[in-house]
Records
---
Amino acid sequence: MAIFLFEQGSAPLLVSIPHSGTELPSDLSSRLTNTARTLPDTDWFVDRLYAFAETMGCSVIKANYSRYVVDLNRPPDGAPLYPGRSETELCPTTDFSNAPLYRNATALSQEEVGARIDRYWRPYHEAIEAELERLLEQHGVACLWDAHSIPSAVPRFFDGVLPELNLGTADGTSCAPWMRNAAWSIIRDSRYSSVLDGRFKGGYITRRYGDPQRNVHAAQLEIAQRAYMREGDCESDVPEFDDRKATELQALLQKILKSMLDGASARRR
Ligand SMILES: [Zn+2]
């Protein structure tokens, strides 16, 4: 199994989908608990949700392996993204409900973490970097949209219920105001509940690659899963895509990506 799928497009926008992968290497799978093997913390169906992006000419990169192998949206040194908040590690050992992922809860060795970085983390990031450079060279501008989803309620990370659409721009530092405004104005004016740079301000990918000075602009959209799927009442429920909800949300996502492409084409250098 390839580490990731990559489709190169013709437009100056790369969509990154780091957490919808469901593959596990067999030597890892056998060490996980039965619950962990159902991959409850997956960004379910985010690749399916953004399937339209390729038809718009966007480039798309999507990780095939589960975030339980290595979290592509964390820095390789494991530094916290949100200091003071509970968060899962670069190579997680607990799930979002704080349950252990491994049958034998011993810490992962530095060797194992390092090997996962080399095999799974680095190639994904090298591909993002190369594609953004290519877009910049070809178009004079490059945009990155980091696509995520999460259960609507995760007490470990936030109180209550998350707004449906959580746009993150690292407090306005990962992209120019035009892109932030383009995305946010559409989200804010939609029927969905939303927040800009709230609990989720953009993870490592957004912060690492967004460089507005160079005309490289990045943003993250964290979508509460009730906006496009049936959220289970108990952990054993099988995740289910909701076509009706998804179709409505896809129309909005399409509008957002389109407005970023329009903005980018006006800002070629
Ligand atoms: Zn995610």
---
Amino acid sequence: MFKQIRDILFSKSKVKRSLDTTLDAFDQKIYNLDSLIYPNEAADPRATFDRGLPVEQHSMASLTLNQTLQFAPTMFHTQRHSARSGRYYERSFVPTQHEVSPAFIEELEALAYRLGASDIKYVQIPGDSIFQGKGIPYKNAIGFTVNMDQANIETDPSFEAFHKVIDGYRALGRISNALTDLLRANGFAAYPGQSVGGLTDYVRIAELAGLGIIDYHGLLISPHDGARLRINVVYTNITNLPIVQENPHAWVHDFCAMCRKCVRKCPAEAIYQQPQEEESGHVQCIDSKKCLDYFTMNYGCAVCVAVCPFSHTSYEQIKQRFKGHPNAPKYMIPLEAVHPSIG
Ligand code: SF4
Ligand code: SF4
């Protein structure tokens, strides 16, 4: 197992199994299920990780022995949870229940928080948020976030910051598997999302669920963690999830329009001056090629997260200071473009 992890992640081996190939192998398991919901024509493909960069340019290929020893256990457990998530897709689970009680939701949320989730909400996934060529077992889903440690993110781009990001993926996998176990034990169908990759656009889904709002660097800003977070989902057959339609965080777009610190500080100049609306109605915030090249060469760069005011100052403090400011810039991102109708 360790050799496989090293081969995939450290890219030093002659075995050139890429991360995309590994993720695609997990995705193939969905075809074991009896039925799937497919993306609609407005769906985007999932971004690829493989940039065709020479191995020696990958920052993970030049870890010291000490860094490798620190990193290996985190990576091992991330992979272990990921493999376990994949096993839930080996056959269809036949549910005996399809409606939850408020008490069960409380139990579910308590479990998520106990295992380290920052927030948990519910959503119905629209067809344009399922990646092209993928499918999901149910469109109802539970979305949750975990926090990324501030002290480490501030050293970004660095090995320490990258290590914490991977630790976030480990936590996401552990929580999604535990929620799936609890749901299945109570008769509900449940399938965990993969913490890395995934079948759906987690950022868009998190925004639809009301966990936060997509900002200028294309990530989610949430009231709990600002920009320092990771997201995962669990797909479920539950038909009466407590879905809230309103997203109260739209004011952040106005703040971004004034701030643009991530645009100025991105070392790859990958963040657009203003998010660009595509023909599909989706909003593109970054030049993904520029970003991913730099990301691969610099320990999974997260400079845009590190410099974001929401990573240092609490959401409520910023909101209180900013909201109602007479010079607030005009709203710049059409809301309907980032809140696609559900269905
Ligand atoms: S750095 Fe500023 S512009 Fe960029 S996401 Fe954060 S608040 Fe928005
Ligand atoms: S991850 Fe790094 S390269 Fe990519 S947009 Fe953020 S700051 Fe720029």
